[in-house]
Amino acid sequence: MAGTGRLHALDGVRGAAALVVVLYHASLIAQPFADDGTARLIWETATETPLKLGFAGTEAVQVFFVLSGLVITLPALRDGFSWPGYAVSRLVRLYLPVWAAILLAVLLVVVLPRDEAAVTADAWIVNANIVFPDWQLALREATLTPASYDTVNTLWSLRWELLFSVLLPAYVAIALLVRRWARSAAALCVLAMVVGRVFDEAPFDLDALVYLPTFFLGCLIAVRLDDIREWAGARRRPVFWAAATAASALVLIAAWWTRPFVPRSTPLGDALWGLAGAGAAGLILVAIGSPLASRALSSPPLRWLGEISFSLYLVHAPLLATLAFAWGDAHWMAVAAVGVPASLALAWAFFRVVERPAHRAARAAGSRAAAVFSRSSGDGRDASPAPTRA
User: Fold this and answer.
1) Cis ω before 267 (30° cut-off from 0)
2) 239 exposed, middle or buried (CB, 10 Å; 0-12, 13-18, 19+)?
3) Residue 387: is its pLDDT beyond 70?
4) What pLDDT is stored for residue 383 in this prediction?
5) What's the DSSP call for residue 385?
6) How many CB atoms lie within 10 A of CB 45?
7) To the nearest whole number, what is the mean pLDDT of the chain?
């Protein structure tokens, strides 16, 4: 049975991806000041070369999506899995930290009022963050149903996480059904993501084609995990995994390092952006299969980052925005120098005070829901059949 042990390297992947998102948002605060001269050259070097890996925020989110597809599917493949218990536990685990993060973001604006004149007009700092407390907006965003978010900017991705969580039974069933043809199914997922990027223009909104197949790539890895481990075990040469890592990383950010040759606004540029999910899946496979990558990603610092990654993802944008409004985004270097480590500290506190108790509450609520459903089924077990390996 797959997933009998925790894949610690995936904690490291999650932590690294969360840190990349933080650096990405710090870079967006600096972006308006990279308009010409040396600053422009530095910006292009950082974003239009493989160095973009350190600032690839949107692509890092797709790494999260593949991870979610993998780690949420694995328990569903085990005997005795309770779907009612899962549903209740998952909702509690998602919503409690989200609500706390929204409350924190609004309180930051209440305590430290924001002056729009202190930052660059029509920049990310204004367009993707609240300038004044808006409780009505906060309540609407707390449902995780809007398409865009300003109170906590990163919640746009949790909307897709929520939808995937609701659709998990269908994802698992389809993944098991196509398990024998996983490579072909993965290719179709990548094709769908490319189509979604290329044709995602008004009046069409094809974001679902970009993001939902990314979760399915993780599901496919889950249902073939034992086969993947066996395949990887026969390939122990470091040069193979180094090449796989480089290829996956370059595919992840293909739309960026190719920009000197392929403009972003062209169909080819959009198609390259659509490959990001494939690169994300490739990096997850490397984390699972490469002994060297697994050891590196299982290091204590990265595992600690992985542990607080969800908290870091939720709290860093409001904190960075607070500093940028307080000091002015022209002082972006100070915002980044203080904001990044402060985000790590705040995330650790948020994890201890909010996320860890939310995990306990989610497990307890899930166990109660599973027990209630088991009693109502009349046979002492969860009446809904748990998926098994095909």
Assistant:
1) no
2) exposed
3) no
4) 43
5) P
6) 11
7) 92
